[in-house]
What we know:
By secondary structure, this protein is mainly alpha-helical. It has two helices and no strands. It has helices spanning 15-27, 32-51.
Amino acid sequence: MGKYKNKSYSLRIDDELMKKVKMIAEAEDRPVSKQLERIIRQYVEQYEQEHGRINSAELSVTKTG
C-alpha cells in the first residue's frame, strides 16, 4: 500500500455549500478535494497576511475524542 503525503479527513459540510464548491471545481477543472484544499490554503494565506506567519514548527496536533 502506498503512503500519501497528505492526510485525509472526514468533513461535514452544508449540502448547498458543497454543491457550490462542486460547481466551482468543475468550472476550474479540478477535483473537489483539490478545490477544498485550494480554498483552505487561500484562507490560511489571507490569515497570515493579517496576523503574521504561522510557524509550522511550533504547531502541535493533538487528537481529541
